[in-house]
Design goal:
It contains 5 helices and 3 strands; from the N terminus they run αβαβαβαα. The protein is mainly alpha-helical. The protein has a single domain, classed as Rossmann fold (3-Layer(aba) Sandwich), CATH 3.40.50. The chain has a 3-stranded parallel sheet, with no helix packed on it. Helix 2 links the parallel strand 1 and strand 2. It is elongated and about 50 Å long.
């Protein structure tokens, strides 16, 4: 995990840089955004402060006053009640859970990192945190 964490900082710096590059282009400058989607590559591995820094960068270059939906993809094995509540506080209002099945045998065949009971608990926690 430490090796993965070493890769996160330069990745986030590059992502913030790319957001800034688009945000400085006349075509996109202060453009109104209605949807934000954090997906692919399990963005739920990021901690809430890392996600918040991405939001800060987006706010700096784009008009987010019209955002209707902010989604994050998550695997049940990578989130907790603490993260779910932090997501809501950051402004994430939609969760796309990578629950491929609620049957352990299926999950093993699919190579998923979580068992069925963890997926079910994750859905309950998401609802308790305000996701529906």
């Amino acid at each position: 995990m430490a090796q993965a964490n070493e890769l996160v900082r330069p990745y986030l710096e590059a992502l913030r840089h790319e957001i800034a590059l688009y945000g400085l282009e006349a075509e996109y400058r202060r453009r109104q955004v209605d949807t934000i989607y954090f997906g692919g590559g399990t963005p739920s591995l990021l901690n809430p402060s890392q996600l918040e820094s991405l939001f800060d960068t987006l706010h700096q270059y784009f008009d987010l006053s019209t955002v209707v939906e902010t989604t994050i993809e998550a695997n049940p094995g990578t989130i907790s009640m603490e993260k779910l509540c932090a997501y809501r506080n950051i402004g994430i209002n939609r969760l796309s859970l990578g629950v491929q099945s609620f049957f352990d045998q299926d999950l093993q065949v699919l190579g998923r990192i979580h068992p069925a009971d963890e997926a079910q608990a994750c859905v309950r926690q998401a609802r308790a945190a305000g996701f529906n």
